[in-house]
Amino acid sequence: MEIVAVIAAVTVGGWFAPLNFHALGQVYLLAVIALSLRVSRWSALVAAVVSGAVWNFVFVPPRLSFSVVHAEDGLLVGTYFVVALVGGQLTSLRTASERARLLAESDRLHRTLLDSVSHELKTPIAVLRTASDHLET
Questions:
Q1: Domain count of the chain?
Q2: DSSP classification of residue 61
């Protein structure tokens, strides 16, 4: 839903902005870069496809048709896909790094808990004393 909202906002803004279609292509590319840093890899690729199709259909002459007359326009649409894939890959790497950090923190907490419990459970008498203390409370 976020993808559709961003592409729609760029399209409506571009319709009223006094920019040529090349400049609007750069705005769409910027939107794809921003989305690729927030959404998954495949969602970023969808954003690239949708933005490239909308830009081509609405702004590239002849308007309201899917045609790429100049090689520069086709190159710009191709860059959407490369940027979306690179941004999505960077986002997935950041997510994996965050997951690894959380896992390491969780592992550290578990080790601390086990160390504190094992310290109290060194002798059978300490086990009974700890159990009775817990039963009293």
A1: 1
A2: S
- What six digits make up the tokens of 52? 């490239």
The structure tokens 């300490």 sit at 126
Note down the domain range covering 23.
2-136
Nearest by Cα to 11 from 26, 1, 30, 24: 24
Our measurement of the distance from residue 20's CA atom to the centroid of its chain's CA atoms, rounded to an integer in Å, reads 30
Amino acid at 48: A
Angle among Cα 89, 66, 45 to the nearest 5 degrees reads 10
Higher pLDDT, 95 or 125: 95
Burial class (CB in 10 A: 0-12, 13-18, 19+), 68: middle
pLDDT in tens, 47-104: 888 888 888 888 887 778 777 777 887 787 777 777 777 877 787 787 788 888 888 8
